[in-house]
Structures are given as C-alpha cells and as structure tokens.
Design brief:
By secondary structure, this protein is of the alpha/beta class. The protein is built from 7 helices and 10 strands. The protein has an 8-stranded mixed barrel with strand order 1-2-3-4-6-8-9-10. It has a two-stranded parallel ribbon with strand order 5-7. Strand 3, helix 1 and strand 4 form a beta-alpha-beta unit.
C-alpha cells in the first residue's frame, strides 16, 4: 500500500528574532496514493484513512538564531508539555539570492542536540527564499529552479555529512520539509504545474538520497480557487512526486479563506 498524507493546520506562523514557541496542531484527515516517478501509472489502489497528526512549526529568523542548547531544550520541553512530539523547523536558511554557503548553521546543530536530549523529533526545512514566487513567475523559471534545487541538495549533503560524524543525533531527525510554499492556483496553470511537479520530484528524491526520510511540504489556497478541479490537481501532484505530507496553511487566519470555503476545501480534499 502506498500512501501520502494531507494534513490541515491551524494556528499559523509567527516570525521572531527570539526563540518563541509557536504551536500549530496539524490534523491529518486524508491519505491518498503516490508513486515515486512522474507520469508513472499507479499500480496500487488509493487507500483512504483518517489520522490525527500533531506538529508545531518554528521559523528561525534569518541565519542568526540561538545556538544555545539549553534554550532549545526549554522550547522543546514546552512543546512536549502541550502534547507535541514533532517540531518542523520551517527553514534552515532564509534569504534571497545569492544565498551564501549551504553550511549547517550552528543553531541547527544545537537544535538537533536538544531534540536528542528531549526526545523531540525534528523535520528539517530547506532554504526559504521569499522570492520563490518571483523566480517561478520570472523570465527564467527553469534556471531559477535548477539553481535553487542544486543549492538545497548541497545543503542536504552537508547535513548528511554532519550526521555521519554525529550518529548519536540521527534519532532527532524525522524528516525533510521543503520550505517552498506552493500557491494552489499555480497548479491550475499547466506550465507551472509541470515545472513544480518536476522540481518537487527532483527535490524529494535528492533529499532522500542524502538522508532517507519522509518529505513534507506546504500549500496555501485562496477561497476563489477552491474547486473539485483543484483538489484533483493536488491529488495528481502528490501522486507524481515523492512528497509524503502536505500541510495546509494561510487559510482563515491569513484571510485567504472564509469558514465556509475552508470547510468546502477540506471536504473536497477528503
């Protein structure tokens, strides 16, 4: 049985220069099939199921986050008190091109140590480029995505090397999070859909090649584009990439949706 997970999240994100707790309970409502190769026919049936997944997003501020292990331990302990066993570090690096060197930041090393010490598992985000939408919609989207992809896989290679030197920290790593957020309306554009499908497939397989672990991502949906056709596009997108988990964000809290449109969207996906 092949499954991928669609998770719906409430609580939404907060950016801070200090280490602040942000809790985002993510409720997994639906499981759908996926294959690892684009355009390959699915050989096994879709198997629906219902689960609840609790996760929390943290957004490191730039590349200058706290490297204090005790401070990270305090944050993770507060997560556990609230019932969270998994924390998603929404990105490892933040910024526009040129990105700088794809090193493993000191704060991330400390977070892994704290995760090991507190038994909190971490999904580690890739580079977040706030200009991702402009790169995708610009004059050279293929060139942009290739550079973005190559930088992220260089970072993944460096992280894999770090964990090889520190195998005691491997239990703290529970998966990858691709930090590039997909506007659902892009999947209604065939050329963008093809670009994104190829990019996320290559990213997912490349990340897993460095460290074999589940891959997750985020999509956001405006009320105006909620439709059965869009739900089908998301199902096809997951079916043609190696992304296991789709988080939904920036809905009602960011005023992209109403309560009615969010309910309708959840029903269409589920």
């Amino acid at each position: 049985m092949r499954t991928s997970l669609i998770a719906f999240s409430w609580g939404f994100k907060q950016v801070s220069k200090k280490l602040l707790l942000l809790t985002v309970p993510c409720f997994c409502l639906f499981l759908s099939g996926y294959t690892f190769a684009a355009a390959r026919p699915q050989s096994e049936p879709i198997v629906p199921a219902c689960h609840i997944q609790l996760s929390s997003f943290l957004q490191p501020w730039g590349d200058h986050y706290s490297a204090d292990v005790e401070e990270w331990e305090g944050v993770f302990k507060r997560h556990k008190e609230l019932g969270f066993q998994t924390v998603i570090l929404q990105w490892s690096h933040w910024g526009k091109r040129p990105y700088g060197e794809p090193v493993v930041p000191d704060w991330l090393k400390s977070a892994l140590v704290a995760g090991r010490n507190t038994k909190v598992s971490l999904k580690i985000g890739t580079l977040y480029d706030p200009g991702f939408d402009r790169g995708l919609n610009g004059e050279k989207p293929i060139w942009y995505l290739k550079k973005h992809h190559d930088w992220n896989l260089a970072f993944a290679s460096n992280l894999a090397g770090f964990l090889k030197l520190h195998p005691e920290l491997i239990p703290a790593f529970s998966g990858w999070y691709i930090s590039d957020e997909v506007d659902s309306s892009w999947l209604l554009n065939l050329s963008k859909k093809r670009l994104l499908t190829a990019y996320f497939q290559d990213m997912s397989t490349g990340l897993k090649r460095n460290i074999s672990a589940p891959v997750s991502m985020t999509g956001y949906t405006q009320a105006a584009v909620v439709s059965p056709k869009l739900a089908e596009r998301w199902a096809a997108f997951l079916n043609n990439t190696a992304v296991q988990t789709l988080y939904s964000q920036d809905g009602i809290g960011a005023e992209l949706q109403t309560h009615n449109s969010a309910k309708k969207w959840n029903e269409l996906l589920g």
